Automatic annotation (TrEMBL):
Alphabetized SUPFAM superfamilies for the sequence: Nucleoside hydrolase
One GO CC term, this protein: cytosol
Domain Inosine/uridine-preferring nucleoside hydrolase: 4-299
Identification of the protein by name: Purine nucleosidase/pyrimidine-specific ribonucleoside hydrolase
Gene3D superfamilies: Ribonucleoside hydrolase-like
C-alpha cells in the first residue's frame, strides 16, 4: 500500500477524505495533521478527532499544526462549513486524542522513520507543508510526492480567480509549488466533477450504518450551503478527489504544466496560474488534474464508508 500523510482542515469534504484515506486498502494512512482553514485550528482539530471517533479510527496519530497562514490573517469558510466547521450532525465528546507533537514534528518523525518515501496529501491551506519543508529540509528525500486539493485551471470559489485553500495562504502555496518535489494539483476544475448527487445520498443512506448516517447529515448541510450560495443542486466533494488520485491514479487524468502562484495581485492573490501554452517560459512543475472518473470515484467513496460497518 502507498504510505500517506493526510493534512486537513475539516471541513465536510476533508472528513470524507479522512474516511477514504483510512479505508482504502491501497493506502497506508500513517498520520493525520490539521491546519487552520475552513475554521480555526482548534475547531478543525476537534473535527478531525470527531470524525476519527465516529469511524473508530484510533490507530492513526492526529497532530495539530499551524493556527494561521505564513504571513496573512486567517480567513475561514464558515459560510460553507458552518460555525463548527463541520455543521450538520450532533457529535459526542471525541475519544481520539491529539498527539503531543506539532504537525510538522509528527510529519518529520513519520517521514524519517518510514522505510519508504511517503506521499503527502494536503487538503487545506498549505501552511503546514511549507513549514515542514522550511523547518526540516532533510525530510525532502522521504517525500515521494505531494498530491493536493487546491487551485483551479479556471475560475475560483473564493475570489473570482482563486480557490479557497490557495487564497488562505498563497505564500505557503508558492513554497510548495516551487519546492522541486513532484506536485499534483487537484483543483476545482476536477473536483466539481465529484458531485454528491441525490443518488449518492440515497446510496449512502441505504448502507444503514451509523457512519453512513453521519455522512448523509454532513452532505445534507454542505449541500444546503452550496445550493444557497452557488445555486448548485449537488455539492462538489473536493478533498477526497486528491485521496482517490493516490489510491487509484487511473481515476484522475492529469497533464503536466508549469503552475505559478500569484502573490501580488490586488484581486488575484492565491491564483494558480496554469501555463498550458508555455507563455511564461517556466518549465513544468506540476501534474494538473483534468478529468475524474466520477462513477468509480463514488463507488470507491461509498465502499469506504461501508467498510467501517
Ligand atoms: C477547498 O476549500 C475548503 O472549503 C474545502 O474543504 C476544500 O479543501 C475547496 O475550495
Ligand atoms: Ca479542505
Amino acid at each position: 500500500a502507498t504510505p500517506v500523510i493526510l493534512d486537513v482542515d475539516p471541513g465536510h469534504d476533508d472528513a470524507l477524505a479522512i474516511l477514504l484515506a483510512r479505508a482504502d486498502p491501497r493506502l497506508d494512512l500513517l498520520a493525520i495533521t490539521t491546519v487552520a482553514g475552513n475554521q480555526t485550528l482548534d475547531k478543525c482539530t476537534l473535527n478531525a478527532r470527531r470524525i476519527c471517533t465516529v469511524a473508530g479510527i484510533d490507530d492513526v496519530p492526529v497532530a495539530a499544526g499551524a493556527s494561521s497562514p505564513l504571513v496573512r490573517e486567517l480567513r475561514t469558510a464558515a459560510d460553507v462549513h458552518g460555525e463548527s466547521g463541520l455543521d450538520g450532525p450532533a457529535f459526542g465528546t471525541p475519544t481520539v486524542d491529539v498527539d503531543d507533537r506539532s504537525a510538522v514534528e509528527l510529519m518529520r518523525d513519520v517521514l524519517s522513520a518510514h522505510h519508504e518515501p511517503v506521499t503527502l496529501v494536503p487538503t487545506g491551506p498549505l501552511t503546514n507543508i511549507a513549514l515542514l519543508l522550511r523547518t526540516f529540509p532533510q525530510v525532502r528525500e522521504s517525500i515521494s510526492e505531494i498530491v493536493l486539493m487546491g487551485g483551479t485551471t479556471g475560475r475560483g470559489n473564493t475570489t473570482p480567480y482563486t480557490e479557497f485553500n490557495m487564497t488562505v495562504d498563497p505564500e505557503a502555496a508558492d513554497v510548495v509549488f516551487r519546492s522541486g518535489l513532484p506536485v499534483t494539483m487537484a483543483g476545482l476544475n476536477v473536483t466539481h466533477q465529484a458531485l454528491a448527487t441525490d443518488e449518492v445520498l440515497v446510496r449512502l443512506r441505504e448502507l444503514g450504518t451509523p457512519l453512513a448516517r453521519t455522512c448523509v447529515e454532513l452532505l445534507t448541510f454542505y449541500g444546503t450551503t452550496y445550493q444557497e450560495q452557488w445555486g448548485l443542486s449537488a455539492p462538489p466533494v473536493h478533498d477526497p478527489v486528491a485521496v482517490a488520485r493516490v489510491a487509484d491514479p487511473s481515476l484522475v487524468r492529469c497533464v503536466e504544466a508549469p503552475v505559478l502562484i500569484e502573490r501580488q495581485g490586488e484581486h488575484t492573490a492565491g491564483a494558480t496560474v496554469v501555463d498550458f501554452h508555455y507563455r511564461t517560459g517556466h518549465p513544468d512543475n506540476a501534474r494538473v488534474a483534468m478529468d475524474l472518473e466520477a462513477e468509480p470515484f463514488w463507488d470507491l467513496m461509498i465502499n469506504a464508508v461501508h467498510s467501517y460497518g
